[in-house]
TrEMBL record:
One BP term from GO: protein sumoylation
Keywords in alphabetical order: Metal-binding, Zinc, Zinc-finger
Gene3D superfamilies the record matches: Zinc/RING finger domain, C3HC4 (zinc finger)
GO CC, one annotated term: chromatin
Compositional bias annotation for Polar residues: 238-247
Name used for this protein in its record: SP-RING-type domain-containing protein
Composition bias type Acidic residues, residue spans: 220-233
Length: 258
């Protein structure tokens, strides 16, 4: 079977060829032919690259992350303990030393502005904030494609996966592809406890070095939803796209010297 190079309308840009329908089990051979009127210049060597794209169903990704990508609660507690120890510092000047006893962690999913159901983040993310797994997958829309099967309606066979850039962490722009996602067991426990206490509207928590935590008090007008149902482009709200994990600052005392 043969196929020609696709070109993007108005820009004459070469597009990749989808050879999926031409492959068969076993060894496949690809032959590239160029027009005879366009000889290849000397010292120029043409190259061809074959990219394998793995397509997983929504349920398969959720199952994979749950089975292979869960961080233990103690793992997160150890990170919190170390960060609070660093934040307290070892300054020799006792008059200037400020001890941070709590770490603030935002619980709001950047897409829905409400608490996550399954808290995930990229394995290389340095922040502790998470986003919801189901929401993340549902907002990774595939590329627009033209059906070549002549099937009427929604053709599942000719659907294309989403762009790689769509899988960047909404909090830090890091790698958040399915194989890089991990569930935070500590924050999953936090959600479970908040659900039992009927406190799922909690936006953030304060965590101590020993792993204990408490809901962070918030202003009365913070309960209003910051998201919009009209935003369907898969992008997180601007105000919620960056991590806010930080040690909670204690109130400062003002001493007046006569």
């Amino acid at each position: 079977m043969s196929t020609g190079i696709r070109r993007k309308a108005h820009y004459s840009k070469d597009l990749p060829i989808d050879a999926s329908m031409m492959l068969h089990p076993g060894v496949n051979q690809i032959t590239v032919a160029t027009p005879s009127g366009n000889p290849i210049p000397q010292n120029r060597y043409p190259a061809i690259a074959v990219e394998l794209v793995e397509i997983l169903s929504h349920s398969a990704v959720v199952r994979m992350v749950k089975e292979k990508g869960t961080l233990s609660p103690d793992h997160t507690r150890e990170i919190i303990k170390k960060r609070l120890a660093v934040a307290s510092g070892d300054d020799d000047d006792d008059d200037l030393a400020m001890v941070n006893s709590d770490l603030s962690i935002n619980l709001a999913d950047p897409f829905t502005s409400s608490i996550f159901t399954i808290p995930v983040r990229g394995k290389d993310c340095t922040h502790l904030e998470c986003f919801d797994l189901e929401t993340w997958l549902n907002t990774r829309l595939g590329k627009k494609s033209v059906c070549i099967c002549s099937n009427k309606g929604d053709c599942q066979r000719c659907k294309e996966p989403s762009f790689v850039d769509k899988w960047r962490c909404p909090l830090c722009d890091g790698d958040a592809r399915p194989y890089s996602l991990c569930i935070d067991g500590f924050l999953a426990e936090v959600r479970e406890m908040l659900q039992k206490g009927n406190k799922l509207r909690t936006k953030s928590i304060l965590v101590s070095a020993d792993g204990s935590w408490r809901p962070k008090e918030q202003a009365a007008d913070d309960d209003s939803d910051g998201g919009s149902d009209d935003d369907n482009d898969g992008s997180a709200p601007v105000a919620s796209t960056r991590s806010s994990t930080r040690p909670a600052q204690p109130p400062r005392e003002v001493i007046e010297l006569d």
